[in-house]
Amino acid sequence: MAAGLLLPAQGPGEAAAAAHALSLPAEAFGNDPRVELAWAMKAHQHAQVYFNLISSVDPKFLNLTKVDDQIYSEFRKTFRDLKIDVLDPEELKSEPAKEKWRPFCLRFEGVVEDFNYGTLLRLDCRKDYTEENTIFATRIQFFAIEIARNREGCNSIVYSSARAPGEAASG
Question: Which DSSP letter does residue 168 get?
């Protein structure tokens, strides 16, 4: 992981408090920096685990959820031409993009746990999570794009590079 995303270690008491805080509705906090730090730590940990996973297991064989087939099918119906190997942030964040993403995401309410939680998503699938290569997205956006990247072979470069470190793709 990039130095820009490193976060302080936390003990069991802090982890339990953070987990409890993250289970409360957002309105309960305003802009509490402790909650923001807890979220950042959780998102960072998720990103690290996911990158280690696609580095260790051929992504073509990964299932990220129990409903990967449904997510992939709906994603490609809705975003048929979305380029997923290197994402354009505007395809996620512009107002027209949000208008298209919103109904897609809401289809997974009650289907995918925490579908609208914030998570980190790599812009360029060939690269690790760095400050320059990371964007904030909802969990269902992360699943949709990463399931498509896995099925369409885009994440294979990460797995291949981890298997043959001397041949790793460079920045």
Answer: P
